Amino acid sequence: MKYHPKLELLNEYENYVSIESMLDHASVDSVVPGICIREGCEYTADVEPDQDKGWCENCGMQTVNSCLVIAGVI
Question: Distance between CA atoms of 12 and 19, rounded to whole angstroms?
Answer without folding.
Answer: 9
